[in-house]
Amino acid sequence: MTPKKQFRYMLGLFAVFLIVIPLIILYSSGYRLSENFKIVKTGGIFISNNESGASVLLNGKLKKSAGILDKNMLVQNVKPGNYTVKVEKEGYRQWIKYIKVQEQLVEVCFPLLVLSELESEEILRYIPAEKADPKKKGAKRPKPELNDEYTDVIDLVKKSKKLSESIFPIWNSREIAALKLGPMRKLKGKVFLSNEKNNVYVKWIGKKDQLPFFINTMSKKLVFSPDKTITAIDFYPNRDDSFIVSFDDGSLHAVEIDTRFGNQNSYRIVKYCSSFIVQNEMLFYFIGNKLYSIDFSS
Amino acid sequence: MSKEYIYENYRIGKGDELSGRDYLLYRFYEILPGFLSWLTIILAVVCSYLIPIYTAMFIIAFDVFWLLKTAYLSLHLKANWKRIKEHMSVNWTEKLVHFKYDHIYHMIMLPFYKEDEKLIDKTLKSLLDCEYNSKRLIVVLAAEERAGEEPLGIADRMKEKYGKLFGHFIVTVHPDGIEGEMAGKGSNISYAAEEARKLILDKKKIAYDDVLVSAFDIDTVVYSQYFSCLTWMFLANEKPYNTSFQPVPVFNNNIFEAPAISRVVAFSGTFWQMVQQERQKRMATFSSHSVPFSTLYKVGYWQSNMVSEDSRIFWNCYMKFDGDYIVTPMAYPVSMDAPLANSFWQTMKNIYKQQQRWAYGVENFAYVMFNFSKNKNIPKWEKFKIFAINVDGYWSLATNPLMIFLLGWLPIILGGREFNTTMVSFSLPYITRDIMMITMSNLILSSMVAVSLMPSIPETKKRPKKFYHIIQWLLVPFTITIFGAIPALDAQTRLMFGRYMGFWVTPKHRSE
């Protein structure tokens, strides 16, 4: 390649660089060209879903649909202002939020998408006779064999009661011990939930610079104040930004912690139960002696 | 009048050979490349924490710069590819009829350590297969005493088999433990060249000006027109004694046996040399190269007290001729071995070590800068240009892949809550991803060039699918980070702390 040609290429690419850089930096900072060719500042909304393939609607207009594998969506080019954001997915309850979009900023949302029809499965206390171990069969009428899955959940409930009743905290951390965890005081990661006089509060116990989007203060924040009496609370399976609450009428509700912009999504997930417990992605609840489970992993 | 340049400054290997102010100056230049690379990495971390918005904007600008730089280099690659194809189709022997060239001899330096006999045999056979009068070839098979008896036996058998077929054939044995020398290729071929001078050139009264020395590796296999092409370029050159000749090293000898990572790393090296061939002013000799014997004799052969003698010989000559020295790009290939071992992990280790040794070429920076400070005959502007080119080269090699593929995410990780709510923070991964996708499209050209440079598949081999030779280029982000930036940073850090490296011989391995 001749030096002259080299110089020409270099000059050309340098010119491209000089032109492209301001444009791309302005674009990445939220500047856009309006319909009447004026430069305007825009903001965005970032939707972080646990489910893939959801759609986002802004003021009723479809703005973006995620692919089969996409869980996150960045809605750009949004003029500053107030919007009704809806996240929809077939088979799921609609999630609605009123959001204020500010210029050059992005509002982050973690929609709580709950299946319209949750499938619960009964966990039997005893293994049905035909499934019981044949070796244990005696000549007499076989003794019913306890179902391990059932006893595991019972153990879990006992363990959780013991923890809350224990005089001596077993926690290694003094800070956590001071939280006095129990049926009305729950901790997940650094998010602490407590029910005080039928009001649910949230508090971030981590570092200030790691504050999550759904808690925008370091002080204790009231996030739920229902009319009905709360009987227990726990975190939503596999999430720290939502919780499950049981009321004195026996119903279980899923409620999101995020109270920004005034709207808080909550859904009834179980019509009636006497008590419940959450373990990882599983929700277990009792109706009398009968135990049921709902798997939230899918 | 400018002060006369001191000859001894040519031969410095490393800082600790000096004392007083010279030592401090040399050490400063040994530290500088590593310091700049580490400073960049540390600044990337600190700035991502303190000023994440500006850092993110810088990263976006840097991504665009990288895209355009890649496009610029691809244009050079394409131009050189065209030139190589053209040079491969030329009949250089026919072209030589316009010159008187019967007086030209080629001295071929073949240093070896413990390599396999078959490999050496193949290299020698390729010399005989050349369309050049083999009686004008002087073969110097340079063995090492420290390698033991077995290699000497191989050398004797090779001499017996090929000795009479070449004009001259000598076997030299580089003595072990010569004071002030580093065991390696440089010390071996320097010793061998001096032996060849005494035993052949002086005895047979061959003029030094009529001898072109090709310093090869033992696995260097030449293409049939190599010596004709080299002779033509030498005779057609305006200043034939003020230039070295650089072929394009293509790592083809065992390409169908090497794993994909080895192939990609090897071809990346070839591509870089191809790009450099189009930027003559940025070139220094690398790996297999040729130099007129008289020039070599004037500078005292290759340096024997450092690792990267292949590039250093160019700088030795550059200093000796007060900057009036250049590399002539031949745009003609020689074939070499890609790193390969008995196991996959050993191959990976060998690739890393080879890349680390090549990256240790950064030791030349201190040498060049130190000699610039001593040599007043080289124009200042020329010195500045070389300084800038070298700093950019070493810095880019050690930091750019890290900045593009790893450090680019730092503002998002360290920027904090406030930054993570800005448009810039959210745009950064999307824009970076899109720019990378466009940049990766340059790899289509790379894969095309690679496929065209590969030899025809031997019948004994299982036919490899072309698809794999194209898809393998997706490994580039991985290879330029793990086998590019990391060994370069490793080499620069060693030099920075004065933990000087020794010469590591890349083991040659070809399956049966």
What does it look like?
The complex is a heterodimer of chains A (298) and B (512). Chain A has 298 residues and is of the alpha+beta class. Helix content of chain A is 16%, strand content 38%. Chain A has a four-stranded antiparallel beta sheet with strand order 5-4-7-8, with no helix packed on it. The termini of chain A are far apart. Mean pLDDT of chain A is 86; it is low at 165-171. Chain B is α/β, with parallel strands linked by helices and 512 residues long. Helix content of chain B is 55%, strand content 10%. Chain B has 19 helices and eight strands. Chain B has a five-stranded mixed beta sheet, sandwiched between helices. In chain B, strand 1, helix 4 (117-128) and strand 2 form a beta-alpha-beta unit. The longest helix of chain B has 38 residues, at 52-89. At the A-B interface, helix 1, strand 3 and strand 9 of A face helix 2 and helix 16 of B.
List the helices and strands and how they pair.
The complex is a heterodimer of chains A (298) and B (512).
Chain A: H1 3-28, E1 31-33, E2 39-41, E3 43-48, E4 55-58, E5 61-65, E6 72-78, E7 81-88, E8 95-101, E9 106-109, E10 120-123, E11 126-127, E12 145-146, H2 148-165, H3 174-177, E13 185-188, E14 191-196, E15 199-204, E16 221-224, E17 230-235, E18 242-247, E19 252-256, E20 266-270, E21 275-279, E22 282-287, E23 290-295
Parallel strand pairs in A: 3-9
Antiparallel strand pairs in A: 1-2, 3-6, 4-5, 4-7, 7-8, 10-23, 11-12, 13-14, 14-15, 15-16, 17-18, 18-19, 19-20, 21-22, 22-23
Chain B: H1 20-50, H2 52-89, H3 92-95, E1 105-111, H4 117-128, E2 137-144, H5 149-162, E3 168-174, H6 185-202, E4 211-215, E5 221-222, H7 226-235, E6 243-250, H8 260-277, E7 289-292, H9 293-299, H10 309-320, E8 326-335, H11 344-359, H12 363-374, H13 380-405, H14 410-414, H15 416-419, H16 423-440, H17 442-453, H18 466-471, H19 476-496
Parallel strand pairs in B: 1-2, 1-4, 2-3, 6-8
Antiparallel strand pairs in B: 4-7, 5-8
Helix pairs in contact in B: 1-2, 1-12, 1-13, 1-19, 2-8, 2-16, 2-17, 4-5, 9-10, 10-12, 11-19, 12-13, 13-19
